[in-house]
Structure formats: C-alpha cells, structure tokens
Specification:
The protein is built from four helices and nine strands. With 270 residues, it is an alpha+beta fold. A hairpin with a 5-residue loop joins strand 8 and strand 9.
C-alpha cells in the first residue's frame, strides 16, 4: 500500500508537469503574415522619414547661409560708413572685383529712361582701402541738360566675388589649401551709392540733398565653380549721412570715394 501511495504521488506530479508544459507551449506567437505587415508599416515610416530628411537639411543650410549674409552685410555697411578704417583684412576674402558703368538717357519732362551704354571692367585690388573706395563710388547725374529735356545718368556698380567673412573657421585665412577654399561658401556683392534728392515737381529729381546718400547692397549666392552666383538673393538698403570725399585716383586711373563720418559740407546756395 505504501508503494502504491508513492506511485500515485509521482504520477500526480508528472501529470501536473505535463499540463504546465502544455500550457506554456500552447501560447500563440506572431505569424509570418503579421511580421510581414509590421515590416511594411516600418518600411513606409522609414520612407517618409528619409524623404523629409533632405528637406530639413536644405532648410538648415539656407538658414545658415542667410545668417552669414546678414552678418557680412553689416560688416560691409560699417566699412563703407566709416571710410574703410580698421577693415584691412577684407582683401583676404576677395576673389574678383569688377566695376560696371551703365549710362542711361533720362527725359526730365516725362520720366522715361533708356539705357545707352553698359561697360564692365575687371580691376586689381590689393588693399581694403581701395575696395571700400570702389564700393563707395556714387551714381553721377549729368549737369548739362539738353534743350529737349534729356539728361544723362551714369550708374556705377561695384561687383565683388568674395568668400564669407563668417562661418566655419577651417576656410578662413591663413588657410591656403585650394581644395578647402574651393568648397568654401561664397557670394557676389553688388554695391550702388545713390544721392538723395529733395522733392521736386518734375518727374525726375534734380536737386541732390548734401551729406545724404542711399546705399544699396545686393547679395547673390552661392558662388558656383564657374564664378557665377546661384539662386540666393537678398537686398539691403540704408542711408548714410556725412561728407563723401573724392574722387581720389590712387591707381589704374579709377576714382575712389570715402565717407568722412562726422564731417558735413555746406549746401550750395542757389
């Protein structure tokens, strides 16, 4: 009887173990169809993320470039306003300088304008003093008016291809590696200085206000390998007060002008 009791206990334990094992083994898992559906959902999500990633990187790059342009515009503006004092390192970033003259025929009576001549000349700039002197060249208005009310206006533009003054430090002077410099961010700067005019009843104003000029800076970026700018465009416009000294013919028979902050000329009494 004792042996029989032990056998019953052992059988009971064995039967309980088999039941537990069958319970554990009977739990359902993922089928191949479910796994395929999960992979498909993950794939769609990854495709969407990968598609948005380049757009986010482009926005980040454009914001960085606009920040550099805004900062460099302030530096150039301050250099022109102060007459190129304390900006001797600007020439380290210059790649090419051109001077463009556009002669326009203006009819004072009805305000119509017609371009007569356009010329562009590449110049060799060695100092920041000369660079700012070219950027400060004003637009000139002909004093001799023809009997039929025609006036000739010469618009002078200084065009400069240069690398960014701000940004990553690896492409800044004294970096001389051509491979690094070719990959640096650059832009084209166009500067025009226009005298401000008093209100006039005619279609074309003819009485310039002394000691007051309007500076227009146009930035185009980035510079492509062929030297031409890309699709980026931003314009800045401000007014500068003070005497404009010049022209000074330092080299190459080019006129250079410089602002004298704090100095004002007396208006001409008519």
């Amino acid at each position: 009887m004792k042996f029989l009791k032990t056998s019953l206990v052992a059988r009971t334990h064995i039967s309980q173990g088999c039941a537990w094992e069958s319970f554990c083994c009977s739990r359902a898992g993922f089928t191949l169809v479910e796994i395929a559906l999960a992979l498909a959902v993950i794939g769609f999500a990854l495709v969407a993320i990968i598609g948005v990633l380049p757009l986010g990187m482009n926005v980040q790059r454009e914001n960085r470039e606009e920040t550099i342009i805004n900062h460099d515009a302030l530096v150039v503006l301050e250099a022109i306003r102060t007459g190129a004092r304390g900006f001797n390192e600007l020439t380290n970033y210059v790649e090419g300088v051109w001077v463009s003259n556009v002669v326009t025929r203006v009819n004072v009576n009805d305000g119509t304008q017609q371009e007569v001549n356009r010329s562009i000349v590449k110049v060799n700039i060695t100092t920041a003093h000369e660079l700012i002197g070219l950027l400060s060249t004003p637009t000139t208005y002909g004093t001799a008016q023809l009997p039929n009310g025609v006036l000739f206006v010469t618009n002078t533009y200084a065009v400069v291809n240069m690398r960014a003054l701000t940004g990553v430090a690896v492409d800044k002077p004294p970096q001389a590696n051509k491979t690094i410099l070719e990959g640096a961010f650059g832009y084209r700067l166009e500067a025009q200085l226009v005298p401000c005019f008093a209100p006039d009843s005619t279609a074309v104003p003819r009485f310039p206000v002394p000691n007051l000029y309007e500076l227009r800076l146009t930035f185009r970026w980035p510079l492509l390998p062929n030297g031409r700018p890309g699709r980026g465009l931003q314009r800045f416009q401000t007014r500068i007060s003070g005497a404009l000294a010049g022209p000074f013919y330092l080299r190459q028979q080019l006129p250079f002008y410089f602002f004298e902050p704090g100095v004002y000329v007396q208006p001409i009494q008519l």
